[in-house]
Design goal:
Blueprint lengths: L8 H9 L9 H12 L1 H7 L1 H8 L3 H23 L8 H9 L1 H20 L1 H17 L5 H17 L2 H29 L12 H4 L4 H11 L16 H31 L4 H7 L4 H9 L2 H36 L17 H20 L4 H34 L6 H24 L1 H5 L3 H28 L1 H6 L13 H5 L1
Helix pairs in contact: 2-10, 2-13, 2-16, 3-16, 4-12, 4-14, 5-12, 5-13, 5-18, 5-19, 6-7, 6-18, 7-16, 7-18, 7-21, 8-9, 8-16, 8-18, 9-16, 9-17, 10-13, 10-16, 12-19, 15-16, 16-17, 18-19, 18-21
Length: 498
């Protein structure tokens, strides 16, 4: 394509020279991004009491079962990641296995899923910050300034280099998991309310009517774990690092969630925990840590819930930026969004665009006098969560389809058995989530129907969009997710000076 004189040389130079920073992330760094996106402290303090209320003392096993399901999915997912090495992650996998129309639909679905998971959480940030300020200082603050301040803070974090984000997330993740470990230590040292019990593992307590609801909550708690593949271009030895980070994240989350929920059961006792969860679900974990550790620890938990939300926001923001970067490089999104900062090596224009989109959504909900938790969080998060689960399902289906068409040396366990089993399990998980959608949203049937349909509708809209690309922009359509070789750039003057 020719370059016109209206294109300034200084505008073209950074995009021609700068790339994402390769070799920046190790296994632990990528795992920090993934686990931080899941927000373990927020999930435990905010959602686990509801799982206990609905599923009883067998709730911890629900998190183990969800973790096992996603570990099965990870087998085929990480195997395919060794063969499909582009930056598009989910949509690249789905394109290779199910064709370009499905892949383009998946790309739109990924944008909905990750943006929904992040933007909605600005409502949670406002709600959690207000609760923390009220609990610690008795102050009541409006929610809009908190959300907007969060947008600016996260935007800056995404603008900086990826290793800066990894270090920051590492600190925040240690803080939020540390406070839960402190609670666990206090409960174990004091022997719980009535002595430690393993009754939570008994089949009679696991297979109860409320288990389906527990599983729905549990699967939602892992949302975002698959984003390990998004960081392939910045990973050290991605063929090893990405699979290790994926298994590490799934294993840690499954075991840690189950352990912490079991600790909560022990803190109140097998016969009292359901009553405690029903009486004060929002304050259940604060009551437990005050009893077993002290009021100062409850104050820290309030603070760390806010930092947990910030960590989740930054992790999803970085994931969104890299999806947008990949789609800009494909030509599906405006190519300007593919510009990379010459110093920080971040997709900064994609980050700015995402921050602006987040501000528009937040301001729209504020103008409509919506509640930051009940509407902004739940109504925006829910389509995002369903969208990411649908992407996981499509990716699981794509794995055996891909390996059936190419020559490879992988075993059938990784390329057929595990992906097919994962397909069945993930489809079941989606049915459970949709069947209990009212527990996630608290909304009317009409609103719930719209929230559930948003993700499949966006995917289906990708099919006519793919047809339009094929007719109007055939070069974009034909090169979609084909992984062209990326040239190694020369250092920019800024980098040389450093």
């Amino acid at each position: 394509m020719s370059v016109t004189t209206s294109e300034l040389p200084e505008e073209k130079a950074p995009s021609a020279a700068a790339t994402l920073r390769p070799g920046s992330l190790g296994t632990a760094d990528i795992a920090f991004f993934v686990v931080s996106a899941a927000a373990p402290l927020t999930v435990m303090a905010g959602v686990a009491p509801l799982a206990i209320l609905l599923g009883g003392i067998g709730a911890p096993v629900g998190y183990l079962l969800a973790g096992l399901t996603l570990a099965v999915f990870a087998v085929g997912f990480t195997t395919m990641s060794r063969h499909v090495t582009g930056g598009g992650a989910f949509y690249a996998f789905i394109t290779r296995g199910l064709g370009r129309p499905a892949g383009i639909g998946a790309a739109l679905l990924a944008l909905l899923g990750y943006n929904g998971m992040e933007i909605g959480v600005y409502g949670l940030l406002a709600s959690a910050s207000r609760d923390t300020l009220h609990a610690l200082f008795g102050a009541d603050v409006p929610w809009l300034p908190v959300s907007l301040a969060g947008l600016l803070l996260i935007g800056y974090g995404g603008f900086r280099s990826i290793d800066f984000g990894a270090k920051l997330l590492g600190v925040l993740l240690i803080a939020e998991t540390g406070i839960l470990v402190l609670l666990a230590g206090g409960v174990l040292l004091k022997g719980g309310a009535h002595g430690l019990s393993l009754a939570s593992l008994a089949p009679s307590h696991v297979f109860v009517p409320g288990t389906a609801a527990v599983l729905a909550f549990a699967f939602a708690a892992f949302t975002g774990f698959e984003s390990t593949v998004i960081y392939r271009r910045e990973a050290r030895d991605p063929g090893r690092t990405v699979p290790r980070a994926t298994y590490l994240a799934v294993g840690f989350l499954g075991l840690f969630y189950a352990f912490v929920v079991w600790i909560a059961v022990q803190a109140f006792g097998d016969d009292q925990v359901v009553r405690a969860a029903g009486k004060d679900p929002a304050g259940m974990f604060f009551t437990a840590i005050t009893t077993y550790v002290g009021g100062w620890a409850a104050d820290l938990m309030h603070v760390f819930i806010v930092t947990s939300v910030l960590a989740s926001l930054l992790a999803f923001h970085n994931a969104i930026n890299r999806y947008a970067l990949a789609l800009a490089e494909e030509g599906v999104l405006p190519r300007r969004l593919g510009r990379i900062h010459p110093r920080h090596r971040s997709p900064y224009l994609a980050g700015i665009a995402q921050t602006v989109l987040g501000a528009v959504v937040v301001l729209a909900f504020w103008a409509a006098h919506a509640d930051p938790y009940q509407q902004l969080l739940l109504w925006v998060n829910t389509p995002g969560m369903i969208g990411l689960m649908l992407l996981q399902l499509l990716a699981a289906i794509a794995v055996p389809c891909y390996f059936r068409r190419v020559r490879h040396s992988e075993g059938s366990l990784r390329t057929v058995v595990a992906p097919v089993l994962a397909t069945v399990l993930l489809a079941t998980a989606i049915v459970l989530v949709v069947g209990h959608i009212d527990l996630f949203t608290g909304a009317s049937p009409v609103v719930n129907t719209l929230l559930v349909l948003a993700a499949p509708v966006v995917f289906l809209l990708g099919l006519p969009f793919a047809w339009w690309l094929r007719r109007s922009r055939p070069e974009v359509y034909e090169s979609f997710a084909t992984e062209p070789p990326t040239p190694t750039p020369t250092p920019t003057p800024t980098e040389s000076a450093e």
